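Researcher: Good morning. I'm working through a list of sequences from a screen, and I'd like to move beyond sequence-only analysis. For each chain I'm collecting a predicted structure so we can compare shapes side by side. This is the next one on the list. No need for commentary yet; just the structure.
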Amino acid sequence: MVVVSQDQVSCDLSGESAILNLKAGVYYGLNEVGTKVWKLIQEPKRVSELWDAILEEYEVEPHRCETDIMALLQDLLDNGLIEVRHEPNK
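Model: Good morning. Structure tokens for this chain:
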């Protein structure tokens, strides 16, 4: 599960997003697809839910979608903009 960090603020800029990491004071920009992912993870989401949403909305090969989303999530994590949570066992 991934969700946005509480240590950030963001705004929509005509379909793209600007995010400020409040602890580091660093701005981060997202393109249209990254903004879609960002909006989805305002509430905790499984990575598979993100893949499904992007595959449904954009024409992209499944492998490319997976690779790109994982790279984006890793970058957001490295910059302190998201948190990774483990799902409780059901």
